[in-house]
Amino acid sequence: MTLLLDIALVAWLLALAVHVAVQSEERSAIIALLAFGLLLGLAWVRLAAPDVALTEIAIGGGGTAVLLLRAEAALRGRDRQEEGMTRAGKLAVAVGCAAISAGLGFAVLTLSTPPPTLAPAASEALAATGLGNPVTAVLLAYRALDTLLEKVVVLLALIGVWSLAPDGIWGGAPDVKPTAVPAPLSYLARILPPFGVVIGIYMFWVGADAPGGTFQAGTVLAAMWLLAMMAGLTPAPDTERLLLRIALMGGPALFLVIAFLGFAFADGFLAYPESVAKPLIVAIEAALALSVAAALAMLVAGPARKAPAR
Amino acid sequence: MTALSQPGVLFGLCGAALVGMGLFVVVTHPGLLRRIVGCNIVGAGIFLVFGAVARRGAAAGLEADPVPQALVITGIVVAFSASALAVALLKRLSELNTGDRAGAAEPRSGS
User: Fold this and answer.
1) Which of A60, A94, A127, B24 is 20 to 30 A from A243 in CA distance terms?
2) CA distance A69 to chain B (A)
3) What span, in angstroms and rounded, lies between the C-alpha atoms of A144 and A41?
4) How far apart are CA A295 and CA A246, in angstroms?
């Protein structure tokens, strides 16, 4: 029975991808991408990866769709169009893409058996970190360097987005609220954020022992903030505001401080002393969740559109 | 066919197909926003191949290998940041081409 579910999911994913390729209306293609992200979350659950499912639905489905829908509205009628390719050109590209797919598929079918796995090593060291969720342990203990660098990459992308504002209005506020706020949006923005914040904090807290975690929680919090900004309930902050910048930097800064303290109190960079491993990890996660929330919301909000209020 | 009966391989093949389809959209579609959507589909396909590798690595009481899963979570966040930067660049490009601010003239209907 579950095989039927798997086949149905795969069929839907491929059908939505085809829809994105052939659809002429941009908006319909973006909503197909949203549905694609949500179904992909179900696929991740079938692959026994609930943490990834949460992240995919929140960021890959919802976050990317909000980003692209705002872009589509802003670009309506003025998207830069390259000349379309000739039929022969498209056929050649299709053959090339099919070859790439076939190669990848062949690689998937001939993956080595017995499959190499780090699961035994991961679960053995789990007791030392005090965590119950092995994925969180990988993200914040075994491969903490990856997470630190990932946060830095997110901040670099944000700086890139902010740098697209003209020099004169550097530091100003982005434009998030549409000219006319529909009543349902205003209503939703009043009702949903209290629940959203509680759910986000719960997802962060429970991520230590069960599926959940920093990035999922950060995305839910970012979504609630974006909702409030879009309905005009709270103004978009000036990008030069100290509080915003402290929120953005707080997570990676705390992470770096604890990483360097590892030289003094444990084995080296990013090593945690075993007695305080779990409190340190939870502290890093809390700061990181807030930073991720601020960064993701500002990434969707975009570059500054008006001069800062001084 | 025995390879197909292993857990996760079906989704791995789906990922391989998605990479090809997304790549086709990126190369051939005339509109730039759709190409960003195509990039996201390519990314989703690659992550699914990772997911197949993780699922096959079930051992020691865990249903899947947690290390590739953590890599995919990192990848999803980074892909979103890249999409955000690409969208911002695209908006700026359209402003430079048409000479007025994107979204300034039309009243957006709160999409």
Assistant:
1) A60
2) 7
3) 24
4) 11
Tell me which chain B residues have a C-beta less than 8 angstroms from the C-beta of A291: none
Q: Is the dihedral of CA A184, A187, A192, A197 positive or negative?
A: positive
B contacts of A7 (beta carbons < 8 Å): 10
pLDDT tens across the length of chain A (310 residues): 788 999 999 999 999 999 999 998 999 999 999 999 999 999 999 999 999 999 999 999 999 999 999 999 988 877 667 677 888 999 999 999 999 999 999 999 988 888 888 888 888 888 888 888 999 999 998 999 999 999 999 999 999 999 998 888 888 899 898 888 999 999 999 999 999 999 999 999 999 899 999 999 999 999 999 999 999 999 999 988 999 999 999 999 999 999 998 888 888 888 888 888 889 899 999 999 999 999 999 999 999 988 888 7
Chain A residues with CB inside 8 Å of B1's CB? none
Residue in chain A nearest B52 by alpha carbon: A47
Q: Hey, are the CB atoms on B102 and A135 less than 8 Å from each other? A: no
- To the nearest 10°, the Cα dihedral for A30, A34, A35, A38? 160
> Shortest CB distance from A13 goes to which of B14, B19, B108?
B14
* ipTM for the whole complex: 0.94
CA distance A57 to A54: 5
